């Protein structure tokens, strides 16, 4: 016979699920009453709380369910358990129904140690982390298609059972896996995976799969080129079907079903305590926190998702604004005072092989003004890719060196650090400035020697990665720090830097309208380089359907034969739980080696060590390779002027801003350059979006077009926003939200400058927690 504890679990789980799915389904509601009849006997109060459940409206159902679940979690331990245990020994197992706080460790969840490890592997350490690990997208799996009606080229999601599978190797190195899937109506679809051997073990006959991709019709046979799939948990996982389903970013061996269950548990057991008051929520038309979090993970419908996103996005800005406003209190810091003479600026310019553009000159004057003043400079130089930010920074570093101060330039990656080093050598070495490079790939001895030279003042300007310079360097006399931001750093990190008092210049290529930069970089003044150096031949961009891949690579070969080089960027076409970006890039490299036997092809991906990456880049720069297949690691700013073609596979998978950044890797010299966007998705919407890149070269125009084309409710990642603390927010499109959040943040701080009211405890701890997380993300 089942113990009371087992009965309680049996009852609790469906009730939790019902709560999460919004209590809107009448059939299920009837089922709840039946469930209580069967299992509810030992829990009279719970039965009472849910009496007449089916007849209630959705809101009341939700309320009653919460009450019932609270009763279930508060219920005393069943007597059977007590009689078996030694009376004096405290229970060692966790109570799987105990209430949780957002800051609790995930080890408090009702999960095994292996599962806790999995969450840690994703960087999820607390319940809050799990709750804020939002899906990267949502898929509508409510109405499954009638396969007979599916048109050629249509995108669809099918759910079914594998009835047969085959593997073919039409030529060496090429593997085609096929599985015939049968849906609930007995209709069949042939699903194919190209060169993804790791998929094979999941294609057991009888396995239940959910598969998305683009359909092709061959007479009566329907074929699906799989872009995404997941295994359904033997029909038990009702969270993955018949609903709008969130799809999470994950890692090898961590399934979507597992993540959903972890989130589900966190939602059901956590006391969320909304930090926004009901009047504030009403004023800004925001839903409550519990509704928002359940809506982002398990929306009942589009409306639920939209209101969830609206609330969570608002919160992101609210926290950002509160942080910026609270920091603003610290006042102006004193920095270094430089002479920054016109004479020195002219000397620098005269040493260049080109003249500064008008925009570069204007920005340099703004910088020189800052440098001359006693106030610590904290300035953001924003300019499109290739607009000449580094040249401007080099001039500022020269001005600092002229006054006997040291300078530092911090890059987000070692590749970039080396590249900046080479470029700055070109600018500064002829002027007698002594440069040093400090990166992780150097030997201990080399690093120690460099650190000594910096400490003794033998080096004027050191270039390295941010972590290295901040952690291990004692400067003799640091006057100016330049931070090449490239999406990576954020407010907290800059604060740390500012406290050590050098003047600080941040360079960023993220196009942000001026009004929004105030929020994004609330602590920085802004200079914009809005002009490209003259004589650049615009990059010719072409959008091709993947059916024309051969044509694209034919063109790449003509360029290679002319002595040019090319990049190919691979994207993650299949977000299944097993395919990583690395695999996608390796598969592509393999495929291209078959297709272009003449070309010397190298592979670059994020899993390589810094030394390996640099080795590949150095050899590519030395023209030992013609073609570099890469994951998006390349985005952060490589500069090889002989590269004239950038091919982006599955371009639809990238945001427009990211595509623009990627394209900026070519056309960096005088050679005519090309960008080929290969679209795997032929829909009109995708075409329209990618056409924006084809037709525009201005980062701001592209960012704005992106905004217009984007539908509401679409999730954008950090990469787009350029701010590490925004998961949902997009500073380009969220002007109004930002303004409202700022208004509320100001009002809150006006009435309570220290946020001291006990009502705001939850808000304060959330604020601290987020600040810590941001700092953590910035450091890793
Ligand atoms: N005024 C100018 N006239 C001609 N060429 C210039 C000018 N300023 C910079 N350049 C050249 O243009 C290229 C890009 O400049 P730089 O690296 O300074 O741009 P950036 O804005 O830092 O680029 P990214 O954001 O892509 O890293 C370099 O090869 C540089 O030598």
Write structural notes for this entry.
This protein is of the alpha/beta class and 780 residues long. Among the domains are: 1-86; 143-242, Nucleic acid-binding proteins (OB fold (Dihydrolipoamide Acetyltransferase, E2P)); 342-529, Rossmann fold (3-Layer(aba) Sandwich); 540-696, 3-Layer(aba) Sandwich (Rossmann fold). The protein is 42% helix and 16% strand. The protein contains 28 helices and 20 strands. It has a seven-stranded parallel sheet with strand order 10-11-9-12-13-8-14, with helices on both faces. Helix 16 (444-456) links the parallel strand 10 and strand 11 (461-465). Helix 1 (4-20) runs antiparallel to helix 2, helix 1 (4-20) runs antiparallel to helix 4 (58-74) and helix 1 (4-20) crosses helix 8. The longest helix is centred in the middle third of the chain and has 27 residues, at 302-328. It is globular, with a radius of gyration of 29 Å. The chain binds adenosine-5'-triphosphate. Adenosine-5'-triphosphate binds at residues 354, 356-357, 360, 383, 385-391, 509, 533, 637, 664, 668. Adenosine-5'-triphosphate (ATP) binds next to helix 14.
Radius of gyration: 29 Å
How many DSSP H or I helices? 28
Structural class determined from secondary elements: alpha/beta
Query: How widely separated are the two ends?
Result: 51 Å
* Low-pLDDT residue spans: 75-93, 487-492, 574-578, 711-724, 774-780
What does the largest sheet look like? 7 strands, parallel
Give the overall shape: globular
Reported by name, the CATH topology of the domain at 342-529 is Rossmann fold
Q: Ions, cofactors, ligands: which are bound? A: adenosine-5'-triphosphate
Q: Helical residue percent?
A: 40-55%
Let me know the CATH homologous superfamily of the domain at 342-529. Answer: P-loop containing nucleotide triphosphate hydrolases
Number of strands: 20
Name the assembly state: single chain
How would you write the strand order of the largest sheet? Answer: 10-11-9-12-13-8-14
- CATH architecture annotation name of the domain at 342-529: 3-Layer(aba) Sandwich
Averaged pLDDT? 80
Strand coverage percent: 15-25%
Which CATH class of the domain at 342-529 is shown? Answer: Alpha Beta
Pfam family, one: Helicase_C
GO molecular function, one term: DNA binding
EC number: 5.6.2.4
Organism: Deinococcus peraridilitoris (strain DSM 19664 / LMG 22246 / CIP 109416 / KR-200)
């Amino acid at each position: 016979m089942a113990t009371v504890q087992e009965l309680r679990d049996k009852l609790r789980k469906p009730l939790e699920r019902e709560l999460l799915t919004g209590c809107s389904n009448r059939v299920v509601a009837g089922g709840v009453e039946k469930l209580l009849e069967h299992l509810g006997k030992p829990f009279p109060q719970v039965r009472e709380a849910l009496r007449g459940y089916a007849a209630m409206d959705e809101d009341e159902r939700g309320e009653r369910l919460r009450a019932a679940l609270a009763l279930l979690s508060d219920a005393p331990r069943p007597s059977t358990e007590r009689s078996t245990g030694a009376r004096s020994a405290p229970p060692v197992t966790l109570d799987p129904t105990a209430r949780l706080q957002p800051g609790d460790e995930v080890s408090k969840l009702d999960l095994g140690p292996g599962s806790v490890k999995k969450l840690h592997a994703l960087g999820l350490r607390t319940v809050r982390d799990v709750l804020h690990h939002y899906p990267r997208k949502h898929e509508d799996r409510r109405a499954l298609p009638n396969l007979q009606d599916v048109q050629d080229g249509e995108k669809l999601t099918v759910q079914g059972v594998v009835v047969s599978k085959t593997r073919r190797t039409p030529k060496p190195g090429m593997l085609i896996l096929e599985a015939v899937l049968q849906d609930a109506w007995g209709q069949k679809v042939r699903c194919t995976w190209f060169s993804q051997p790791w998929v094979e073990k999941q294609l057991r006959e009888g396995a239940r799969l959910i598969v998305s991709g683009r359909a092709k019709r061959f007479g009566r046979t329907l074929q699906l080129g799989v872009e995404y799939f997941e295994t359904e948990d033997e029909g038990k996982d009702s969270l993955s079907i018949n609903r709008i389903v969130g799809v999470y970013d994950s890692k090898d061996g961590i399934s979507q079903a597992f993540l959903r269950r972890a989130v589900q548990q966190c939602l059901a057991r956590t006391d969320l305590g909304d930090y926004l008051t009901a009047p504030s929520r009403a004023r800004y038309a925001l839903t409550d926190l519990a509704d928002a979090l359940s809506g982002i993970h398990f929306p009942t419908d589009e409306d639920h998702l939209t209101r969830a996103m609206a609330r969570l996005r608002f919160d992101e800005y609210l926290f950002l604004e509160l942080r910026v406003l609270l920091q603003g209190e610290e006042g102006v810091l004193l920095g270094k005072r430089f002479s920054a003479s016109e004479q020195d600026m002219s000397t620098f310019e005269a040493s260049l092989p080109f003249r500064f553009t008008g925009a570069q000159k204007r920005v340099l004057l703004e910088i020189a003004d800052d440098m001359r003043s006693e106030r610590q400079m904290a300035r953001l130089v924003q300019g499109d890719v290739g607009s000449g930010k580094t040249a401007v920074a080099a001039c500022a570093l020269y001005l600092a060196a002229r006054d006997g101060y040291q300078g530092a330039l911090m890059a987000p990656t070692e590749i970039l650090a080396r590249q900046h080093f080479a470029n700055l050598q070109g600018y500064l070495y002829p002027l007698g400035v002594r440069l040093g490079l400090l990166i992780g790939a150097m030997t201990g001895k080399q690093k120690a020697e460099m650190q000594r030279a910096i400490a003794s003042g033998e080096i004027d300007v050191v270039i390295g990665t941010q972590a290295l310079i901040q952690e291990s360097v004692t400067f003799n006399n640091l006057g100016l720090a330049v931070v090449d931001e490239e999406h990576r750093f954020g407010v907290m990190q800059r604060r740390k830097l500012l406290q050590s008092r050098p003047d600080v210049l941040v360079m960023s290529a993220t196009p942000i309208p001026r009004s929004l930069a105030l929020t994004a970089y609330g602590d920085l003044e802004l200079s914009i380089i809005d002009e490209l150096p003259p004589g650049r031949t615009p990059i010719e961009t072409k959008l091709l359907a993947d059916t024309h891949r051969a044509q694209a690579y034919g063109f790449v070969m003509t360029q290679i034969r002319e002595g040019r080089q090319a990049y190919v960027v691979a994207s993650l076409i299949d977000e299944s739980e097993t395919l990583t970006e690395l695999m996608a890039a390796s598969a592509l490299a393999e495929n291209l080696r078959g297709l272009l036997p003449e070309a010397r092809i190298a592979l670059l991906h994020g899993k390589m060590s810094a030394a390996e990456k640099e080795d590949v880049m150095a050899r590519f720069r030395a023209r030992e390779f013609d073609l570099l297949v890469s994951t998006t690691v390349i985005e952060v700013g490589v500069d090889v002027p002989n590269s004239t073609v950038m091919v982006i596979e599955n371009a639809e998978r990238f945001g427009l801003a990211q595509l623009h950044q990627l394209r900026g890797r070519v056309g960096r010299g005088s050679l005519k350059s090309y960008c080929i966007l290969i679209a795997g998705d032929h829909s009109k919407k995708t075409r329209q979006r990618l056409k924006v890149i084809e037709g525009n070269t201005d980062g701001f125009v592209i960012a704005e077009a992106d905004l217009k084309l984007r539908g509401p409710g679409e999730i954008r990642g950090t990469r787009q926003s350029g701010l590490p603390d925004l998961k949902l927010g997009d500073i380009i499109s969220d002007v109004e939200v930002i303004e409202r959040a700022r208004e509320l943040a100001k009002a809150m701080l006006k009435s309570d400058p220290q946020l001291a009211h006990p009502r705001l405890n939850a808000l304060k701890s959330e604020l601290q927690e987020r600040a810590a997380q941001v700092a953590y993300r910035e450091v890793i």
